[in-house]
Amino acid sequence: MTPEDEALVDRFLDMMAAEAGASRHTLVAYRNDLERSAEAVRGSIATASADDLSRLGAAWAQLAPATVARRSAALRRFFGFLVDDGLRRDDPSAALPRPRFERPLPRILDEPEIARMFEAAEDRAASGEPAASRDLALLELLYGSGLRATELVSLPRGAVRQGQPFLMVRGKGSKERLVPISSRAESAVRAWLEHVPASAQWLFPSGKSHLSRVRLFQIVRRMAADAGISPERISPHVLRHAFATHLLSGGADLRVLQSLLGHADIATTQIYTHVDSARLVELVNARHPLATRPR
Known about the structure:
The chain is mainly alpha-helical. The chain is about 55% helix and about 5% strand. It has 15 helices and 4 strands.
């Protein structure tokens, strides 16, 4: 990247932080994508022509479609900034590659496997061991409420209150949503709180902060192994997927599911209809008006 490019990228990122409220993580990702793009262009990206950008498809041929799409999006935003600020007259981003890729279906566990995980976790928690009580509370909140890993580990100590069937969660984009709490989860959390100091800031404290996402990942995999399930098949996000899929199987409305999961776009939630396609076919055959119409 040329010195001129670096100065313009700095200005672009300052704009993203000030006007778009981009997080530090997002800014680092944008800078990295623009730097990698400059390497592929082999010249100044700020002055790149449509012909320069049209050659990126071949240069990025070995990259994953999602990576190509992300880098193209970063360049489009960057060129839009240059045009808006009068730093160049034309926007060559129409020549950028537009990869097509299918969104993979989420991995899930079936209900008997989830039941085995709970049985193993409950057996361990019966020993009264603090770590076992914590693990059961984590499992109840992951599968019972569909929380994201970050949302779960960063819950404050007083997030779950006795007799209150929901909690307020701050999710992606600092958006808040109500999340249901089952009586099972409330009971498990109450048992775990007996081991958490009243002065603790977090529901799942660890050292000077809270449990890390990496540690949560390790705990979930160990619980799967205890239940005789291959650890490679599971993660906190797989339990979130199972929460969504099993709710849909039970008749949950897609809009309700969108709200529970905290999805900004219902298209993200609709992927679960593909996972549960067998139930949808059965539903049409059983509930459609023509299903009972005599031939």
